[in-house]
Design a protein that fits this description.
The complex is a heterodimer of chains A (about 325) and B (about 325). Chain A has one domain: MetI-like fold (Orthogonal Bundle), CATH 1.10.3720. Chain A has 11 helices and 2 strands; from the N terminus they run H-H-H-E-E-H-H-H-H-H-H-H-H. A two-stranded antiparallel ribbon of chain A has the order 1-2. The longest helix of chain B has about 35 residues. Helices cover about 75% and strands about 0% of the residues of chain B. Chain B folds into 2 domains: about 55 residues, no CATH class; about 240 residues, MetI-like fold, CATH 1.10.3720.10. Chain B has 14 helices and 4 strands. Chain B is an all-alpha fold. The chains are: A mainly alpha (about 325), B mainly alpha (about 325).
Chain lengths: ~325, ~325
């Protein structure tokens, strides 16, 4: 703290010309500072290690070709494609629902009402549920429950939707990332000054018009941030898709909602634990990790930049 | 006595509903529909969390009533001492679901989870709390602006990446330094898991420390207390519940973390207190075995039961953690 620095300097100044060094103070600062910088060092070490080993194999071919020779050669294009398709489907499901819940929490419900409290409690606790439990839920609810019912009703019991598929994996991830979208959007909505809403209502606009034309445009940057954070989270999760649709190797790209798919994180998991030839796959693995990490970091960075811009804008407005 | 004149209120009502009917064709209708849709979305969000519990629980339920499942995996089989093995070498707690006599003792899984989680917390807690004290009390705003995003970046690293690094890099490195008998063990997995929970322990602790009002610090400094003494005996005690909550949330996160332990713990269900042996955690067991299990077999139901246990534990830890933080902020900020 700046203020504490100043005070301590003044203190020692008052003590006379003799500069007394407070060794306890030095030690305490040094120790806590050291812990802090060690964490930073570990982060840099991880990123550096992956970047250093990952760059060897990285090429245009690696990004655009399919794996060959039992995953010991070729590229990872199907995994990149699968990941992209997965998060796009997830986004389509999670953003409208998440934004609507946030609108309900901030614009419609009274903050003392029971339903507000229960919803908030449910949302914050949803954020802490382990990702493997989402995998179990996805298998029990989406694959067997909804998928199985669709098969019984529309396909005469034939196995079409009642098995792991990209749509079920995407919906499972949508449930997992729902709290991210809700909480980020709600934060943004709360930061919008009430005067804007009152001005709109005073001009005779209905609540619906106020929300659609005044509140949501103001909140668009925040909603975008929430979406990006959800995508970044969803792209990195493996446990929820283990049983809901991811596959080790597929000869063709997923082209139907009930196709299985390859995915970057799942690819890393299978390749590093079940590869018959570790020596040959290690460079490929490092490069795959590099691609996944670059993707999530890029998304996080964009989210951080949008958020800081939004803050300066709000500060200026206030 | 009824003050309200019934006929007047009736008139108001009828005029009101008439107005509503007239307006319903246009914007009013949209307004009404929108409100309903929004309410429906909120209800859906609440139902999802109940659905998770219901659907995971539903698949675990046969353990309690289905005689077929109970014969193989009763609650006694799961939790109590069993008479497997020979009298000379009794094996009271064994997890061996795929064998002639399936054995479903959850004790090794609980112990494994506890061992990894303990290492993770012992590693993560000192670093993250000290770092939080540094950034909240001593660091210049510029340093703070630099360090906070970097630690948030650590939170952005997918757990499968940390698992990969633990498996390929950390395990070899630790083995060459400490000469472990088993390359993949509780220490390896625990340290990697520690990395995964540093961000949450740091962030919640930092939040708690910065929530302590400035006036506390100023009062202490004005009395001539040195800055580190102020941090140690003034700010830290005031923020203690928050740091306790940070540890609870970290513990919950570590318990549920799957990919890191699945890849780097060795996955052997052992029952001893040796931290340098391979372990199998609850989460990794679900992840490793659900893919190959026969649907609706006792084994399948046991795996969902493990999911329920994980869900309930993490849910409770989270609730207590969040509640503690909320109470602390209320008290410190007088809100």
């Amino acid at each position: 703290m700046n203020c504490s620095d100043r005070v301590s300097r003044e203190q020692s100044g008052n003590g006379g010309s003799r500069q007394r060094v407070d060794w306890n103070d030095r030690l305490f600062r040094a120790l806590t500072g050291l812990a802090c910088w060690i964490i930073v060092l570990m982060v840099l070490l991880i990123v550096g290690k992956i970047a250093y080993h990952g760059k060897d194999r990285l090429s245009w071919d690696f990004l655009t070709m399919a794996p060959e020779e039992g995953m010991t050669a070729g590229g990872i294009f199907p995994a990149i494609y699968g990941t992209a398709l997965l998060v796009i489907l997830m986004t389509i499901a999670v953003v409208p629902l998440g934004v609507m819940v946030a609108i309900y929490l901030n614009e419609y419900s009274s903050h003392t009402s029971a339903i507000y409290k229960v919803t908030r409690l449910a949302v914050t606790n949803l954020a802490g549920v382990p990702s493997i439990v989402f995998g179990l839920f996805g298998l029990g609810f989406f694959v067997q429950g909804i998928g199985g019912s669709i098969d019984r009703v529309f396909y005469g019991g034939q196995l079409v939707f009642g098995q792991p598929a990209i749509i079920w994996a995407a919906l499972t991830l949508a449930v997992l990332t729902l709290p991210v979208v809700i909480l980020t959007t709600e934060d943004t909505l709360r930061a919008i000054p009430n005067e804007l809403r009152e001005a709109s209502m005073a001009l005779g606009a209905t609540k619906f018009q106020t929300i659609m034309r005044t509140v949501l445009p103001q909140a668009s940057a925040g909603i975008l941030t929430g979406t990006i954070l959800a995508v970044s989270r969803g792209a990195g999760e493996v446990a929820p898709i283990l049983f809901t649709g991811a596959a080790y190797f597929l000869p063709e790209l997923p082209h139907k909602l009930h196709s299985q798919f390859m995915e970057l994180g799942y690819h890393i998991y299978v390749l590093s634990t079940q590869s018959p030839d570790v020596e040959a796959t290690e460079p490929i693995l490092y490069s795959t990790v590099f691609v996944l990490l670059a993707l999530t970091f890029f998304l996080n960075l964009v989210a951080i930049i949008i958020r800081s811009r939004m803050r300066t804008k709000l500060r200026r407005a206030a | 006595m009824n003050i309200e004149n019934p006929s007047v209120s009736q008139t108001i009502n009828s005029v009101g509903s008439g107005l509503l009917k007239a307006g319903l064709t246009g914007t009013r209708l949209k307004d009404l529909v929108f409100a309903k849709v929004i309410l429906f979305a909120a209800v859906a969000a609440i139902s999802i969390i109940f659905l998770i519990f219901i659907y995971v629980g539903k698949e675990a339920l046969p353990l309690f009533y289905d005689p077929e499942a109970k014969k193989e995996a009763s609650l006694g089989n799961l939790f109590l001492r069993q008479s497997y093995g020979t009298p000379d070498m009794p094996l009271p707690y064994i997890w061996q679901p795929v064998s002639e006599v399936p054995k479903y003792s959850v004790a090794p899984l609980f112990l494994g989870t506890l061992k990894v989680t303990l290492i993770a917390l012992l590693f993560a807690a000192p670093f993250s709390i000290a770092a939080a004290i540094y950034t909240a009390e001593f660091a210049s705003p510029k340093t703070r602006e630099f360090i906070k995003p970097l630690i948030e970046l650590l939170a952005g690293i997918p757990s499968v990446v940390l698992g990969f690094l633990a498996l390929i890099v950390l395990a070899s490195w630790l083995q060459s330094v400490f000469n472990f008998d088993y390359r993949l063990n509780a220490v390896t997995a625990g340290l990697a898991m520690g990395l995964a929970i540093i961000p949450i322990v740091y962030t919640v602790s930092d939040d708690a420390l910065t929530a302590v009002p400035r006036s506390y610090r100023e009062a202490s400094l004005a009395l001539g207390v040195t800055p580190w003494r102020t941090a140690w005996s003034m700010v830290l005690p005031a923020a203690t519940p928050g740091i306790f909550a940070a540890l609870l949330l970290g513990f919950g996160r570590a318990m549920g973390e799957t990919m890191i332990v699945l890849m780097s713990s060795g996955n052997a269900a052992t029952t001893n207190f040796n931290f340098t042996e391979s372990v199998r955690t609850i989460s990794a067991t679900i992840a490793a075995e659900l893919g190959e299990v026969v649907f609706h077999s006792p084994h399948y139901h046991v795996l969902f039961f493990l999911g329920v246990i994980l869900f309930v534990f993490t849910f409770l830890l989270n609730m207590v953690g969040e509640y503690t933080v909320a109470r602390l902020k209320e008290r410190l900020m007088g809100r």
